[in-house]
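User: Predict the full complex structure for these chains.
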Amino acid sequence: MDPNQNDYHISFFKPTTPQAKWNRNLAIKLILIWAVAVFGFHFLLRAIEKPTPEETYVKYEQVWESISSESATTDEMQVFANTTLSVLGKVFIKPDEKSALTNALSWTTFQLADSSQKALLQEQLAGFEKLKSEDISISDPAYISAKDKLSSLASGIIGLDRSDVRSKLISVSLSSAQLESFSETSRSMIPTIMSTYLIHNQSVLTDFIFLGFPFHYFYTAVFLLILFVFLCWLYCVRVDAMNVKLDIEE
Amino acid sequence: MKKILLPIILILTPSLLFAAGASTQLEGGFKVGPAIILITILCVFVLVGILFRAKDTADFYAAGRGISRVGSGMAIASNWMSAASFLGMAALMYGAGYHGLAYVVGWTGGYVLLLILMAGQIRKYGKYTAADFIGDRYYSQGLRAVGAIIAILISISYCVGQFGGIGLMFKWILGLDYAAAVIIGGAVVLAYTLISGMLGVTKNMQIQYVIIIVSFLIPLFILTFKFDYFWVLPQIGYGSVVTDIVNGVPLAETNQLFNSLGHEYAMVPAPEYAMPWDPATGQTFFQWIAIAFSLMIGTAGLPHVIQRFYVVPKARDARWSVVWGLFFICVLYWSAPAYAAFGKILSANPEVGKLAKDAIVVYTAQLGNVNPLIVGLLAAGGVSAAFSTVSGLLVAGSSAFAHDLYVKIINPNSSPKKQLLMARLGTILMAVIVTLLALKNWALIGQLVAIAFSLAGVTIFPLFLLGIWWSGSNKQGAIAGLIAGGLVSVIALTYFIAGKEGVTLPYHEFVNYWLGAWYFAWIGAPLAIVANIVVSKLTPPTPLEIRKFLVLNVHS
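Assistant: Here is the predicted structure of the two-chain assembly.
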């Protein structure tokens, strides 16, 4: 560039020297790749996703009407108890939603119990809650014994196999204060809770497994970072090569 | 480096042996082994700080421009890998699943922008601080002062999350309450920064990187091995952990694997953990995109990151230091989601109780029955991560205070001794403010740090982007851009702070959603850029000497 022949103007979009034009073109190419890889992929993910219910949600839907109208059969009550337990074991549960689910599970379990089981359930649950309130260690034999007894009883009542992971949750998911009534507040919250926690945005990109990952997760958590490093490396190599070619000393 | 690493190993060995009997516990109590490891590491930092302490202002601000590009890359990584990376990122994914990956992508993808659009040019411009650049490029002492104040605000905002992380780790190791832990941790990092300056800081950062990455990876290898995943490369091996969370881990398949509390390694299916913007997380597609974008442009506008390019000898070194820096950063960022995934399964039993998300990295290692000493090293790594960043931030903030405000505006004839004194006073003042804010415990570490990114994204990023790439951007345009970006920041932060203090402002739901404190740059930055361009077009052009400098020095 001859300084006498220009007005010393710099603009990314209107480069005035071959070097600036080359640099602009390289930057645009790399930024386009970057933008499409990050945002393009996520817009695609958004565009093709479909609300996909878990199997548990399908089961819940089949029985909820009967539960809400209090005309459910024993089998339906058991299915409902099992579905609430599935949600209680989820990874993100808000406290008020947990409370509603606990109420639903406790009430259903109590309704399913026969008269002798009811007394036993109340007694064992009260005993277990007393132990919990005493701040006892969870490895204490008394605590473990009380928990196992309660778990065995409650699992039997709701028809849950002891080899099912949910049987490990039931003893700590029941509440003695909520055995006898299913409050209107809890009842009204259940449909929203179930759809929130049991329907997910899924697509072929989330269902396809790649190197053990759901594909979209691998793409975002692993591949994009590799791409970023590669783009940076490529930029440096290209700029170095151009500086040599144009004999530019920085 | 070898000269320094050997003593570390020698010092650590007896402490490891001494504390070998410590028992695993999730909360409370003084933990002897981890405490010794932490204290030893801190002593090494201070020692290195003294050995490589700043001798004059040039050393204090920019380490004498004598750092190699790999060394600078390590320093960039160490400077970058804060408590937000070490502790906060896993916390975000533990708390919000796939949504947390927006932070991973945002905090790494921004380096591509930074490199392509700025790194080499910033070095060629040849200033010490971000405010220096703003003051010179926009030929205004007033803008220099504003730039310095913004740099200080960003540094403070960034430091708050770090002090929170330091507090959590000190609390866990020393068995103190959170407030005491924040105050003690803050005092230690302040003392270290004051005696070392940036030369010591840069040397320390290279050591800190090694400590951070080693302490972070060892437990991960152990966890993947212990729970029967592909342990040779845990960054890939944990993919099966994510899939296990999605599909659930039946009791029959646990193969007698337990967490440290005796619960089976099992859980019900939880696709919400891995599925994008799942309703269960309460996060949306818009928020994912806005966070990733805001963090990316914020990365390219952070004063303490930009400042690192002043410490390399040439523009080429500045560029390559970004490549190295990003690679070193990614080693940790590929690994952090693994802690969140393991943490989810290991804490799936309700009996584990509610865990502090920001300490989930440490809790996961504990729940995975990793040796208490290695868990202690992990916690000490977390403190190192926070220290390395805080020291860089305090230097950047105090540079802005002493160099850009005091020397350039208030007292241009001050002696070097006086300048150094002002830099140190600035550091103390910042540390006190940060400690007070950290005690408020307003949000997760990662979220607090994200506020600094949005602030940088709406203020400094547009000034640098246009300042470097468009000579038409002038003083008036810069002022207009700052007003636009500043206005968005004030609205977003006012609503955020009011919400945290229990005050409900009008339209709070609308503002909190569209101008969330951790992602308001998604709209603030474009507004600032547009305002800058429009006003620049309508006002007198940039002076000839500035344009000439840009053409001949920055773009040649």
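Chain A has two domains: 3-49+203-245, 52-201.
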